[in-house]
Design a protein that fits this description.
single chain; about 110 residues; two-stranded antiparallel sheet; mainly alpha
């Protein structure tokens, strides 16, 4: 049912590992653990907990590095990197919102 979502979570982890973004790697590994336990709502909630506010997933910019002199610079593929990141993030937000919506249906009472 959510096969693509698992791939997207693992792709996000790999992307963030390449960027040495340890905090967010741990965040998505927690989401993956919940996903693999079929606890989709917890997975969705973990993903969504990273959004909003300063320093959130929405604020993250990948491709930052330093040169040999220790000066800030951008990696050559910064645009491609951030487009991939934003695409994955959008897909994972859509997955999370759909799971949250599906589990928040009103209970029918007789």
């Amino acid at each position: 049912m959510y096969e693509n979502s698992r791939v997207q979570i693992t792709d996000m982890i790999a992307l963030l590992e390449e960027e040495n973004s340890d905090w967010w790697v741990k965040h998505f590994k927690r989401a993956l653990s919940a996903f693999d336990s079929c606890d989709y709502l917890n997975c969705a909630n973990i993903i969504m907990s990273g959004s909003g506010g300063m320093g959130s997933l929405n604020d993250l910019v990948l491709g930052q590095t330093t040169n040999a002199k220790g000066e800030f610079c951008w990696k050559p593929d910064v645009d491609k990197l951030n487009k991939k990141y934003m695409h994955l993030l959008g897909e994972l937000y859509a997955f999370s919102k759909s799971v949250q919506k599906a589990t928040n249906k009103p209970i029918k009472r007789d």
